[in-house]
Amino acid sequence: MRTIGARWLLCALGLVSAMSGAQDKKLTLGVYLPLSVDSRDKQFEAGEGLAKALGAQLGREIVAKPFARFEDFNKAANDGLLDLALSEVLTLAQARGEYQAIATASLEADPSSRWAVIAAQQSSVGRLKGKRLALVKGPGSDAEFVSNVVFAGDLPGSHFKLVFVPTVESALRAIEAGKADAALVPGAHAPKTLKVLYRSSRVPAVALVALKAPAGELKAAVAKMSAVAPFGKLQVGSGDEVGALRRRIARPPGVRIPLIAESPVYRPAPGALEPYQSTGVSFPSFLEFVEVSKDQPDE
Fold this sequence. Notes:
Strands 2-1-3-10-4-11 form a 6-stranded mixed β-sheet, with helices on both faces. Helices cover 32% and strands 19% of the residues. It is α/β, with parallel strands linked by helices. It contains 8 helices and 11 strands. Helix 5 (142-150) crosses helix 8. The protein has helices at residues 2-24, 40-58, 70-78, 89-94, 142-150, 168-176, 215-224, 241-250, and strands at 27-32, 62-66, 84-88, 101-105, 114-119, 132-136, 161-165, 182-186, 195-202, 206-210, 235-236. The longest helix is centred in the N-terminal third of the chain and has 23 residues, at 2-24.
């Protein structure tokens, strides 16, 4: 009996040790951000920053692993080499795999998360018919994304000649080199040196995805986190953000939305709002036109 009891004790201690080891195991965060961050170095820094902040909340070490190609990122996720992932919602929506977002975030530089058509010269989207539009190649149908999501079904996918580039930085260089007439980039990457011809409706920027890591634990940790540059604060959502965008890409909205050009917003400086007294303007007295009533109240 003593032998059996000792064996049970050893088994219990081994189970506790295994659970403790699993809890202390490093988590691997796959990072693929060709649309949100304009250089490989910055992509690595963004992944490292999120891994450190999230790891501090979980009490576990998280190692960021950046990927240069979607095929490698997707294979690592499918092969079980990643515990969680950070990528653009658009990229995940265009992929064939099922990616459930734990939380999403916008870029700090563009909280509205809209896409912009930019060009070297001021023009209109209509005049760009048949012109070259540079954009980052995704894992799915980019023509459907441009037509159904960016332009809400008001323009066919054949309106532009799509020129595919590997990064947002390459799209900007394509305009400078004359290899593209315009580019489609996230609004945060629209430089002041180029003209913004059009802005889309909101498109979710990035998503944190749980692959092998427990979703509930991640959601609790995300709720306690602050914003991590270059992203705003991660927001726990419905979990259907990727699926919702995938459905938008597949078909245009039922109610067509007219293209609306945004007027510039004028905000006068505080100095322009001076009190009228400081300008020397004085209004005449109207007391001479006011008659006093003959009936006075009793004292």
